[in-house]
Fold this protein.
Amino acid sequence: MSLYEEVKVHGYAEFCKAVSDRKGKDIFAYFSGDKDADGNSWCPDCVKAEPIVRGEISHLPEGSVFIYCQVGQRDYWKNPNNDFKKTLKLSGVPTLLRYGTPQKLVEEECFKANLVRMMFTED
């Protein structure tokens, strides 16, 4: 049994529900471009970052939550008024963040296993 809970969501509304259902927990969220039926994302940086982030996932704190969120298709993501950009202030995908804190790794920062591990292990 893993020491953390993983939740997969699609879109802003599902993300918000996942967060509110787990109020009071230590939440880490990974935002990625949508994947097609074959499991391929339109976002090449997301494809490159995902195995690195997943490789460090065992370092998540006990009792924490890892939310994997697909942000939508490329056209939706490119709209500057989408909810992820407006409300969560995301500037790019992939983004890994510790919800409710300023801690955030954006785009190529997610390629660095040491930075991902640091986010998962430091208070």
User: Anything to note?
Assistant: Residues 44-56 form the longest helix (13 residues). The mean pLDDT is 95. The chain has five helices and five strands. The helical segments are 12-20, 44-56, 74-78, 83-86, 113-121.
